[in-house]
Amino acid sequence: MADELTPPIHVWVFPPDRSMPATGRDLRVAIGTPGGPSTNSWKLWVKGHDVYMKCRDNFRELKASLHASGIWRYGFTEEFVRSKPNVLQQGVDRVWKRWQPSAAARMGPIIGFQVVALPQGLYLRANDRQSWPHSVAFVEPPADPGRLTVLSVTIVPGRQAISMSAGSRGAVIAVLSLADDRSAQLVATHEPKGDIETLIENAFHRAMSQIAAPESLPDPFVLLLHGTRGEDIPWVTALQVTRRR
What we know:
This protein has helices at 78-83, 194-209, and strands at residues 11-12, 26-31, 42-47, 50-55, 62-66, 72-76, 95-99, 110-117, 137-139, 147-157, 170-177, 182-192, 221-229, 233-241. The protein is mostly beta strands. The chain has one domain. The model has no long low-confidence stretch (mean pLDDT 86).
């Protein structure tokens, strides 16, 4: 997935001879390395015509659902809200974002959801991951401090891995077949920080301004942020924050 001038994307898998991109019905993935820090892990899976992406660790109550009907959603799971009825005020929707891609957009590959990782998002250590199965794939972050890692859940007509554009730093790490000759493909890219870092910074300041007593937060603490970029693409990230003394 890289030419001589473009650094490749490294993915750690177990067993080491595991074929990539992954196929089958699901893939569990994190950004980081098995021996170093990482993000939370996320599970991508398909069921019939529909695609799902769900956090498996600190934020396991969150899920993206990309239905073949064209109704796409991201927010709290129904099971979580049912088990924790006091989490949401009465009348507040458990879905943070509900959107519908245009018919024209669905004729080609379309990004449905992104997980973004800045260096501050790699805060889990090996001791925090002892319960993880060996099957979790780790996407190694970039060595270049001017770039970050993005995992893009992409809905693709057909089942051939999409081609990366010339000069891009990316690779398709999963091709999961859907029932209607489409596929859900997980694309890992090392992107310039650019607009996404600005979006994350703005979301961070908005979130902190809404906390009544920030001094009461643990030090460090983890903050989950989400927003929208580009052509209405929802993204999510988690950052470990250390308060200034």
